[in-house]
């Protein structure tokens, strides 16, 4: 299933489409061999996510992903809509694949309702305002409990000691209601 990782030389793999390069104007890194593709991910933590392109960067794998377009219920008036307002690219850290870190370049869609409300689509692999995937957070929390110390765990997960300490404190705190986050029933 993961044979695409080694298909760089094949015809299917092309330079990144211009549209995608234009969407990442702040990314100064050389864009390496890129594989344009279009399939739905079936890896843990990325179920139902559409992968449009994969690139091998210097020290990580970049997966360009988006969610399928589906009718969403407007949080303001309750009407259903699938009218697209716009897209934003959000860089999200994921777990390792073959010992290389994976970053998702998530093309996050916003819908527009007839009532004027604009809102982000549901995406179960990342929570609102998070820079890491849900799967990353689960693995990180487990390591915080089992790991030697915060510094070691932070290094292993390519994050800061401050983040490690903050997440550890959250483990002890009672679960809070997160308004706007997808509920578990949306994400099964
Ligand atoms: Zn509405």
UniProtKB/TrEMBL annotation:
<dbReference type="InterPro" id="IPR032877">
    <property type="entry name" value="Transposase_HTH"/>
</dbReference>
<dbReference type="Pfam" id="PF14690">
    <property type="entry name" value="Zn_ribbon_ISL3"/>
</dbReference>
<dbReference type="InterPro" id="IPR029261">
    <property type="entry name" value="Transposase_Znf"/>
</dbReference>
<dbReference type="InterPro" id="IPR047951">
    <property type="entry name" value="Transpos_ISL3"/>
</dbReference>
<feature type="domain" description="Transposase IS204/IS1001/IS1096/IS1165 helix-turn-helix">
    <location>
        <begin position="121"/>
        <end position="171"/>
    </location>
</feature>
<feature type="domain" description="Transposase IS204/IS1001/IS1096/IS1165 zinc-finger">
    <location>
        <begin position="71"/>
        <end position="115"/>
    </location>
</feature>
<dbReference type="Pfam" id="PF13542">
    <property type="entry name" value="HTH_Tnp_ISL3"/>
</dbReference>
<protein>
    <submittedName>
        <fullName>Transposase (01)</fullName>
    </submittedName>
</protein>
């Amino acid at each position: 299933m993961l044979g695409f990782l080694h298909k760089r030389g094949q015809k299917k793999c092309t330079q990144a489409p211009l549209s995608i390069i234009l969407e990442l104007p702040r990314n100064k890194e050389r864009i390496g061999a890129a594989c344009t593709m279009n399939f739905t991910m079936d890896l843990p933590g990325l179920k139902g996510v559409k992968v449009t392109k994969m690139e091998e960067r210097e020290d990580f794998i970049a997966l360009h992903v988006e969610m399928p377009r589906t009718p969403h219920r407007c949080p303001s008036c309750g009407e259903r809509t699938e009218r697209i307002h716009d897209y934003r690219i959000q860089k999200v850290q994921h777990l390792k694949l073959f010992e290389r870190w994976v970053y998702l370049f998530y093309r996050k869609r916003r819908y527009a309702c007839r009532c004027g409300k604009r809102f982000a689509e549901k995406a179960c692999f990342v929570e609102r305002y998070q820079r890491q995937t849900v799967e990353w957070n689960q693995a990180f929390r487990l390591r915080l409990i089992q790991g030697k110390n915060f510094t070691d765990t932070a290094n292993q997960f390519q994050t800061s000691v401050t983040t490690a300490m903050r997440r550890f404190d959250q483990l002890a705190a009672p679960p809070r209601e997160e308004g706007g986050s997808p509920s578990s029933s949306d994400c099964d």
